[in-house]
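User: Hello, can you help with two protein structures?

Assistant: Certainly.
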Amino acid sequence: MTRRTRPGTIQSAIRSAYRAVGGIECASDDLGISVTTLSYGTDVSEVRPGGLGVNYVDKLGRIEPAAAMPIAQHFSQLAGGVFTPLGAAGGSSADFADIAREFSDVVAKHADAHSAASSDPTGYTPTEAFEQMKELGDLMEVAARMYGALRERAEGRS
């Protein structure tokens, strides 16, 4: 029997994770634990054998959103991505000029890295790659702030 889960909950995310690996039986095989044990991950229950439990991590993040940040970053990295919170800089909105400025910084770093002045004009040196990652992070932050502000507007919250 499949448990009903509310969309947007950690239980729903766990079910999605099981589906991503071919279902709960495949997850059971992959992890070497029983389907019954895995089923606890989609149950809202106060009884957990040892450990904090993902339900408690979810609850903590709901109580204090900052507690969710390292968890989101961790799982984003595991999934091969990065986590950029919407409204990361105190909820202030960014405008298109901020995005254009940050994008121009990215373009400038790219041009520098591929110029004759670079020790490797065909690619990025490790130092250039690190500097470009910082510029891209800055661009992602202002874009996320603008996205967050637009989402609030679209949802009628501003």
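That covers the first. Now for the second protein you mentioned:
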Amino acid sequence: MKRVFLATITASALAWPSVALAQPVFLTCTLSDQGGESTFDVQLNEAANTVSYFIHRNGMTVKKPAIFTPEKVLFNGFEIDRKDLTFRRDNTQSAFYRVTGGPAMDVGKCVIDREERAF
């Protein structure tokens, strides 16, 4: 009886669909804004619904919750198109935009970082 039970449990476990969690995706993104061009190192972690990014201009690292849709990734006023890797920042919520009336949207591009990492 024990063997039948164990065989049934084992077969059920093997037949159960397993969810393959995607590895984080690393991007290098540039954005043209009023201060020139900004570079961001971006890590998309769809399994955790987060995005981490490093801003080269000021040396700041940020980790934020993100929304992953089939078309784009949305986080902290930024948007990355999942098909053509267009990178956008919505400025309409910033104090700078409200005071200066600068551009409502900064636009740039991302490339997938295929650098091999040791860990």
